[in-house]
Amino acid sequence: MYRFLTLTKAMFLIHVRDRSLLFWNFAFPVFLMVIYGAIFAGDDLAGFMTWMMPGVLAGNLMAFGLIGSSSMMTELRAKGVLRRLQASPIASSDLIGAYVIANVAMALMTAVVVIVVGVLFYGVALNPLNLVVALPMIVVTVVAAIALGQVISGIAPRAGAAVAIGQLFYFGQMFITDLFMPIEMMPDWVQQIGPWLPGYAMAQLVRPALAEGVLHADWVQHLFLLAVYTVVALFLAARLFKWEARTA
Amino acid sequence: MTAPILDIEAVSAGYGSGSRQVTALREVSLQVQPGEIFGLLGPNGAGKTTLLACLQGLHTPTGGRLTVAGRPPREAKGALGVQLQKTALLDDLSATELLEVYAALYDVRLTGEQIDTLLERFGLSEQRNKFARQMSGGQQQRLALAIAVANDPQIVMLDEPTAALDPHARRDVWDVLRGLHEDGRTILITTHSMEEAEALCGRVAIIDQGQIMAVGSPATIVAGLGLHATLKAAIDLPLETVRGLPAVTSVRYTGQHLEIQSSSPQSTLPALHALATQQGKVITEISLRQPSLEDAFLALTGRSLN
Ligand SMILES: Nc1ncnc2c1ncn2[C@@H]1O[C@H](COP(=O)(O)OP(=O)(O)O)[C@@H](O)[C@H]1O
Ligand SMILES: [Mg+2]
After folding, report:
1. Among A6, A91, A187, B161, which has the highest number of CB atoms less than 10 A from its own CB?
2. Which CATH superfamily is domain B36-55+80-219 in?
3. Atom of ligand 1 nearest to the CA of B159
4. Is the pLDDT of residue A40 over 50?
5. Ranges of each domain in chain B
6. What are the phi and psi torsion angles at B7 (to 5°)?
7. Taking 90 as the threshold, does the pLDDT of residue A139 lie above it?
């Protein structure tokens, strides 16, 4: 247990000491809220932000999994850090468990920052029940995002490649899965495709929970879709996991 | 003889497959006894790191059999202290945190005092709160060595532990290794420094192109090859006469010096002296060089080590 806790703490520390993660996970979502609030809010700022804030959070959690978490793992592998860990008696499941817990802690800190900014500066009305309902949805979302990110980490040779692939999947979903723009405003084909993507399920799970303290009418369906993505991703990530960077 | 703590039998290993296949080890056999400081000596690309990787359970051999403390390598990781050739630590942790974490991976809980002692032993006391990424290459390497012994391992495996160190730090590391040896630990190091092998290792294996060329103490290897000492004397004597002196195997002139190869300088020297006196000449300068591992390497592989 001491072994696992110490490793988890180390994994957490390397995340919170990483400057680019600090920027993308804490400063960037706040920046997005400021921009969206200034440009799109219209008359009802609080009402707009009540819709926007959960989308920014869910979108950021997805970005963290696909880009931040995947490239961090890729970098540990490419630099040879994982190789040294492999020489110790820890199991790969311990390493991954510690890593995921550190990632979830990081995500929860993002959630706190985003929610505090929304409530204090934009008058988003949140009662404690909302948080209770939203917490499991946030965790489900970030775990799915990390699982998807680890598939990327399994195929990316370098951190830069992981960032590029992660961005492709993140930007690809940003506007077509109801995260940052209502999907009703989108062309028909987007409305056909969007709901099958993980980002859409993330938005539908996090938004009503955080904004209203209720679950989406079709929450079982969204949760199921996200669970399928997560399980398939975990299976692939486990198959692709390597301690050592590919050479030549 | 006790059971070897590292038992390597006919191990072959390589990288890649198909046309890009590289053979790194060819049927290597080697036994290391408990409590030895054993050196793997060979040039770059000889297969030293690959052999360590096989012992550390990081690389699967294509053939042969090996055990570490009587177990298959993958099950013996807990008994090892490891420093890899390429130092890669969690960059954003401090020296103190790193020692704590890496010891914890072996289920060892270090006290603050133990951490301080380790840092001091490796000259890192002032770096205790520095992040690994803020340290110089030499400091990182010393930290990697401190980490390698932080779990109080029975067997210590170090891959070119002094490669990036200045001569002073190198001697400090040697002292630490001797200390570990006195505690009864088994130490396996790789090096391409003859000096290091001769200064530190009870026995060495000379390895070249994936094969073991010789095993034994530095002195035994040199003696076993029948290598001769070199006598250099500043004197002018007829070659024919010198060739007739006891134990002399060859003679030539290099510049002002007479260079004599001798299988027993103890008998050649007095005879040379007597010859000079008899001819009414004086040896103004003389030097004797015993054959070294360097000569052994050259004799075994036809190439010089560095
Ligand atoms: N990851 C790798 N992929 C392909 N070839 C490798 C790899 N590592 C080592 N080799 C090759 O295996 C041989 C032995 O290398 P190595 O064990 O690193 O030697 P040493 O440690 O003695 O310098 C060399 O020919 C080297 O090029
Ligand atoms: Mg090497």
Report:
1. B161
2. P-loop containing nucleotide triphosphate hydrolases (3.40.50.300)
3. 21
4. yes
5. 36-55+80-219, 228-290
6. -125, 110
7. yes
Verify whether ligand 1 is closer than 6 Å to residue B46 (CB atom).
yes
pLDDT averaged over every residue in chain A:
91
| Cα torsion A125, A176, A139, B89: sign | negative
Task: State the ipTM, two decimals.
Answer: 0.88
Q: What CA–CA distances, in Å, run from B182 to A47, A57, B34, B178, B202?
A: 74, 58, 12, 6, 13
What residues flank ion ligand 2 with Cβ within 5 A?
B 48-49, 85
pLDDT of amino acid A248: 42
Q: Would you state the pLDDT for residue B306?
A: 66
Q: Is the pLDDT of residue A174 over 50?
A: yes
pLDDT at residue A247 in the model: 62
Three-class SS of A27-58? HHHHHHHHHHHHHHCCCCHHHHHHHHHHHHHH
DSSP, res A184:
G
Look-up: residue for tokens 């199921």? A224
DSSP H helix total and E strand total for chain B: 10, 13
CATH of domain B228-290: 3.30.70.100
For residue B57, the chain A residue with the least C-alpha distance is A87
